[in-house]
Every structure is written in structure tokens, then in C-alpha cells.
Amino acid sequence: SDVRSVTERIIAEYNRKYRAEVGLDFVHWTDQTPFATQAGIMGRTRVFITTHGSALNHCMFMETGGSVIEVNAHQFRYPLDDLIILQQGHNYFRYSASMNETMHQGMQLGEDPFDGMSASRCNANPHCIVARRDAGVHMNLQKWSETFIQALEAV
Q1: Beta pairing class for 47-51 and 67-72
Q2: Which of 29, 70, 77, 81 could form a disulfide with 33 if both were Cys (CB 3.0 to 4.6 A apart)?
Q3: pTM of the full predicted structure?
Q4: Could you give the CA distance from residue 113 to residue 97 in angstroms, rounded to a whole number?
Q5: Helices (H) and strands (E) in the chain, counts
Q6: DSSP reduced 3-state for 32
Q7: Do 88 and 67 touch, CB atoms closer than 8 A?
Q8: Smallest Cα–Cα separation from 48: which of 130, 148, 128, 153?
Q9: What is the DSSP letter of 31?
Q10: Are the CB atoms for 102 and 109 separated by under 8 Å?
Q11: Which residues of the chain, if any, have pLDDT below 50?
Q12: What is the dihedral of CA 72, 60, 22, 71, to 10 degrees?
């Protein structure tokens, strides 16, 4: 089972339990997507799931009290993301992948090009932090379920 089907199952269970009508949309914006379209979709969003990057700024169009889940690879954390989201009145959740869930470019899943480097040393090393930022994430479905349920129940 994949992340999408697990997420859909959680939403279906939530809707039955709370007699709610929560839906799920997967959105991919390009530089051709009109700003009004992006802002309109975010204005209806209660739980926003994204990776680190400028897409996090879209939460400014959400109604106050929404939940934002940021998905990050092993040891990647930009310290202002949570503060920006919390200052806008949203709930902030982070899915932080373990090294076993992280795939760096040109490497196998779980291989660490910076083996033994602590998170603080990695954050001070531009090569390490970029590698962590750009790494792929293979999500642990149980851990994802727990994170998503917390975010959903917070709104």
C-alpha cells in the first residue's frame, strides 16, 4: 500500500467517525498555474502537505487554524519554517524521515554520503544540507499515518 491509499483510508475513517466531508486533492503547480487558482485552492485547504521549499508559503492563503505537514529527509530542518507557519495561526507538523527512509541522489536507499555527521554539523556544511534538502523520502506508512491523523484532528 502507498502513501496516497493510506491517506485516503484515514480520511474515509475520519469522515465516518465525525460525519464529516473531508476530501483529498493532489495538486501540482507550475509557473503556468495562475496565482488566483493557487490562492483559491489554498483558501479551501484545511490540511496542507508539502516538502520544504517555497510551496510552504502557500499556507498564508489558508484559513487560520489549518494544519501544515512538512515532509523532510533525514537531518534536514530549516528552523524558520515552523515559526512562519505558527505565526500565521496554523498547526505545524513535521514528518522527518530516518536515514533508512532517505535516498540521496546517486545513492541507494539508506546510504549516507555524510556518514557519522551530526545534524548540527550537517546544517553548518553547505554540501551536506543541500544533499539532505534534495534527497528523496520513502515514507514509513505507520509513522505517516500517525502524523496525518494528528494534523487532521487538530483542525
Answers
A1: parallel
A2: 29
A3: 0.88
A4: 16
A5: 6, 5
A6: coil
A7: no
A8: 148
A9: T
A10: yes
A11: none
A12: 0
